[in-house]
Amino acid sequence: MGASELPLAAAQRRLGRPGRPRKPTHEPMAVTTCAPRLLDVDAAAAYLGVSSWTIRDLDAAGVLPRVRVPLPNGGELRRLLFDRADLDRLIDLWKDRRLSTGGR
Question: Where does residue 83 rank: exposed (0-12), middle (13-18), buried (19+ CB within 10 A)?
Fold first, then answer.
């Protein structure tokens, strides 16, 4: 049986060389990622560069406001979540202003 008699030989001739990758007919879709606004304890700790226990201490002291997610049964999600915007405001409050005010 010759190569031209094989059942897939005609398809192979139409498609080109065997094993040749096809060129995409469309542009690949771009994958976009967005940073989450709500961060759990570990993510908030990584964002601020402190330990997760420091985040828990800041939460317990009322320094860092916690986001409370209500549940349909009247309860709330037990997971500790923090708003990235609150973390940014806290960073602004903690900045050492002596350098920007000329040492006063």
Answer: middle
